[in-house]
Amino acid sequence: MRIGDGSVGSRLVDPVELVERDALLARLDEQLDAARDRGRVVLVAGEAGNGKTTLVDAWTRLRADDITVLRGACDGSATPRPLGPFLDAIPDLADSADGDRTVLLRATMHRLSATAGTPVLVIEDLHWADEASLDLLRGLAVRLAGAPALVLVTFRSDEVEPGSALAALVGDLVPRSDVVRLDVEPLTLAGVRTLAEGSGANVDAGALFRRTGGNAFHTTEILASAGSDLPSSVRDAVRGRVARLSPDARASLDAVALAGLRAEPGLLADVLGPTADAVDEAVRRGVLVDAPDGLRFRHEIARLAVADDVAPMRRIALHRAILQWLGSGPGDHDPARVAHHAEAAGEHDVAFTASVEAARESARLSAHREAVLQFQRALRVATPGVGEPVGLLEELSYEQYLTGQIDDAISSRARALAIHQERGDRTGIVSGHRWLSRLQWFNANGPAAHEHARRAVELLRPDDHGRETAMALSNMAQLCMLGADLEGAQRWGERALVMARDLGADDIASHALNNIGTAESVAGIEAGRAKVVESLEIALAGDLQEHAARAYTNLISTAMETLRLDVADTYLEPAMTYCAERDLDSWLLYIDGYQALIRLQQCRFDEALAAAHRVLAARNATPVSRTSALVAVAVVQLRTSDPAADETLAAAVRLAEDSDELQRLDPVARAEAEAAWLRGTEPPALLARAYELAQHAASPTRRDLLAVWLARFGLLDPVPDDLQAPARHDVAGDHAEAAAAWARLGCPFEQAMSLSDADDPASLEEALHLLADLGATATAAHVGRRLTASGGRVPRQRRTATRAHPAGLTEREAEVLDLLAAGRSNAEIAAALTISRRTAENHVAALLTKLGATSRSAAVALASERGLLGAET
């Protein structure tokens, strides 16, 4: 086997450890053969200790003659350093690690393409990966077709939390035709028995199997204790194995365990002194593994068990010794590693400096979650007179804001504001109030947002022309824009824009242009969108990530608000990709919430629910994002007779009322009105309140949608003389013309509702058919009752795809299922059906849910077993 830079050489693999892994080895062989024509990614997943690393090690050894291994691993001992596993595998990347993901990706692809033989890039323990590494892996998977290479990634499936960045990455990659997931399952009783017999230990294989559940690591570690009393946990198993080493060897393990992912030979020589040679015993006994970059434990869980057992004073002494070695120069300068050891050693000054460096480096590489952890460490170890805590609190708050940790961001910013107030720092106070205004808006606390904005502006003086002054003005423009106050957005925004251009502040110029352009777009001024596009271009050119995300978001939201759904679709995918690649969770979830509303408007209910559930499942989803998601779910539930609709809608109402903002109150009021219409109850009070707000706002489309609902209840008095089509036709009673106009806008539900308002049997029948085809079964039933009451006869419904398919799939989902069975990837499905790739992904997710399958292959197998492939609709 040819060894590339940064790789770990082949090591002997005990054949007994490969029990029940032949099928997995064969699958790896297949993927390697396929990778020679088109690059492949193999995700090797399994619970901790099931033998993922052992499998990969064994396979690379077996294929040693025709592959070149590049190996990196993610470090679970401290805050991971950005791009750590890739830099370990391909050290040359360090020259390209300037924060530009495109450059990093190009350099990685070049290295793989230039490697002799078939390159195999092994990334271990992805569950500990930093965000930058996850993003680079995502981009690599998309472009790997251009290189004859195989990427092997291992991760613990039991540590992938719902809503996490890794869960999102795995979910995005698995559907691809060039990505395969291999699950390393626990051993069977027969496998445990084989291991027990091979070890020579005098144990009861059945009892061992029951105790371990077939976990390969638990089993092998217990067997390695050579028949001593069976431990009750993995920790005891490790202790039993370590106890058989000599005192010096046992002592050396403490240093290796505390060193982290690896312990370099030079580190061990300096830290252990004359007893360093004792490490060799641990290597011979299989507790440690020797690799070119240092020694490490065979299993990370064993390292953690040993590390936990190190006595407190010895722990401090070892961390100090490791820190001294890192500071002496022979090791790589990794500020995150230095910070970890310095904090553990009680060297707070060093920990502070290294943490700040690591945090800013993480932020520069768009690993914003890691930046939060490092800033928190810096503040934790900061002592009076070291650095400037108020500045760190502000940097921490910003990173928390970007990653959707809004409550924490508010707390950090409030602490900083208090310090500014104690010092009488007027500029800092203005900044603090302006930021708290923004954060409270994200927290759906409209009154607090406006109060902080007012305080910031009141503190300004006529001769103030600095950055904070311009941002305070632009923040007022932003709140006016969000409240559909066109005049206020233009007045405050133009002042901020002039000041920003005088200062040469592109970020503030982008912010102000966004506010003005969005307000104009919502008001129906076509030139407004050009200003938001200019804001986006400025932000992208300057790598102003927050401002680019805002511009993307407002292009989507205004298109949705003005029912330009085609425009919204144009920006959705690039916006979500941009935010996902940069840890901009606040914006990613906000956009996904709007995607749920857009798909709801298009009556693509499964896709609306999929987007909404992603938001609601995320622990860091802000209240404003949750409001959109809850509305989408509630309306789908209303239209499909789901009894949970009332509870969901009530949750959306609470959040919308807290925000006290038209853009939240409007969709919630219309959802409540729809519920009342379905049930024949009085219209909600919120409908009239939202309409009153809309009458005084520069948001004609929202006003018109609310007016239609008021007219439906006979409450629109007086009728505005400036209603736009289709609402104008609806209110005037020209329902056929209104329905045609709604259809042209791509709003089929509103089209059906206009037809149902006509009250003549032919229109009601057409509405009934359309609602049934959309899957709005509860609404269709209501219209059917009205048709019967008017003397008409409810016709036999056209058989919709959902009802006709034996598994309840829509016609489109049935087509997708057949393409899955043909081995098509999501991209190929999208091309075959002339839909977007994201739409294809949503269709796949929906049919997996309906079939009760956990993977594409499982869905095809179930469909084949139940005779669903090619089922007629």
Using brief descriptors, characterize the structure shown.
873 residues; mainly alpha; Rossmann fold; Arc Repressor Mutant, subunit A; 6 domains; 6-stranded parallel sheet; two-stranded antiparallel ribbon; 5% strand
Low-confidence stretches: 1-16, 227-232, 798-803
Under the CATH scheme, which architecture of the largest domain would be assigned? 3-Layer(aba) Sandwich
Q: In which range does the helix fraction lie?
A: 55-70%
The shape, in one word, is: globular
Radius of gyration: 31 Å
For the record, give the distance between the C-alpha atoms at the N and C termini, rounded to a whole number.
Answer: 54 Å
Per the CATH scheme, the topology name of the largest domain is Rossmann fold
Strand order of the largest sheet: 1-3-4-5-2-6
**Proportion of residues in extended strands:** under 5%
- Number of β-strand runs: 8
Domain tally: 6
User: How many helical elements?
Assistant: 45
Question: Which CATH class of the largest domain is shown?
Answer: Alpha Beta
On the 0 to 100 scale, the average pLDDT is 86
Please outline the major beta sheet: 6 strands, parallel
Class computed from helices, strands and strand pairing:
mainly alpha
CATH superfamily of the largest domain: P-loop containing nucleotide triphosphate hydrolases
